[in-house]
Design goal:
The protein has about 325 residues and is an alpha/beta fold. The chain is built from ten helices and 13 strands.
Length: about 325
């Protein structure tokens, strides 16, 4: 959803609300906190936006956990013409920014020929063998990629019965690199592993890449500085990115950060060392710690939005940083 309030020609601040959950373990990424914090900020800002001359844009963004909801919205014109786009994400620490890298998802479909595994194995072409060989090839590839790159996958289908040579096997993979630019050659190397495995086993492979890739997040330093100052004013103590073992993940907020000056800070919900995407983190996100983070996050986002509307110098600094990013890279939309 999208709502707009205030002066349509004024400096626009986009407040982003994620709300999707994870299968089985619910809000283990704390998107309930993201939605509550964003909504709280939006409700507060709605009462004053007209008096500031600014413009408030509120975006409810579905399907961050793999569906690319923000990308779909961006393809329909969302997030354009903003002076700032902001959200806050739960974590086990208060940290200025999350090191979010580019990602593209691929489904590999291997096709062979079925046969009786005991009576006529020579008549078969084992699609599962092709998938296993691809898995091992990618495992060998990992020692020759950048330390910040990630390639990880699972088997989603591997046959029906042990006495039937599998004619079909399927795998689901995530390929991650620092930026969309460095992601492209890594994808080519991963594709070579798939195709080589198919050739070696007499099978065929079809590669189904998602129609969108998640871009890396480009945080606005000037905007983050304002956010941190406001957070400290209400008692939050932030770790600098260099002083922690950075969270490494991916998000479609990265694509937004190429369309508008953006921030994606992390707010503490769970004790240090409790990772996101776990049942334990979901308990904290749904408990008093999550409530406190939602309230504090709402306050800090609202205070930062007011800074953007009130401080022309801040807007100029944010805009200068954003222009330095350069032209929109291929793959953002």
């Amino acid at each position: 959803f999208h709502t707009s309030h205030g002066n349509e020609n004024g400096p626009g601040v986009g407040v982003i609300l994620e709300y999707d959950a994870l299968p089985e373990i619910g809000h283990a990424c704390g998107h309930n906190v993201i939605a509550a914090a964003g909504l709280g900020a939006a409700l507060a800002l709605h009462t004053v936006v007209s008096s500031t001359g600014g413009r408030l844009e509120v975006y409810g963004t579905p399907a961050e956990e793999g569906g690319g909801g923000k990308i779909a919205m961006a393809r329909n014109g969302a997030f354009r013409g903003l002076s700032a786009a902001m959200m806050v994400h739960p974590a086990d620490v208060d940290i200025t920014s999350m090191r979010a890298i580019a990602i593209h998802e691929c489904c590999a479909h291997f096709h062979g020929a079925e046969a009786h595994a005991a009576a006529a194995p020579h008549m078969g072409r084992n699609a599962l063998d092709a998938a296993v060989l691809a898995y091992n090839s990618i495992a060998a590839l990992r020692q020759h990629i950048r330390p910040t790159e990630r390639v990880h996958g699972i088997f989603t289908h591997g046959g029906d019965k042990p006495n039937i040579v599998p004619k079909y096997a399927e795998m689901n993979w995530y390929v991650r690199s620092d930026t969309l630019e460095t992601l492209a050659p890594l994808k080519e190397r991963v594709e070579a592993c798939f195709r080589g495995a198919a050739v070696a086993t007499g099978c065929e492979v079809d590669l189904e890449w998602e129609d969108h890739a998640y871009a890396d997040v480009r945080d606005s330093v000037a905007l983050l500085t304002a956010y941190v100052d406001n957070g400290r004013a209400i008692g939050r103590d932030f770790l600098a990115p260099s002083s922690s073992s950075m969270v490494v993940g991916s998000t479609d907020m990265g694509n937004v950060s190429y369309l508008a000056p953006s921030i994606h800070p992390m707010i503490q919900v769970a004790p240090r060392g409790v990772p996101i995407h776990t049942a334990r983190f979901a308990d904290y996100a749904g408990g008093p710690e999550g409530d406190r983070a939602a309230i504090d996050g709402a306050k800090i986002l609202a205070m930062t939005a007011l800074d953007v509307w009130a401080d022309a110098g801040l807007r100029r600094a944010v805009e200068a940083e954003f222009r330095a990013i350069g032209p929109l890279p291929d793959g953002v939309l």
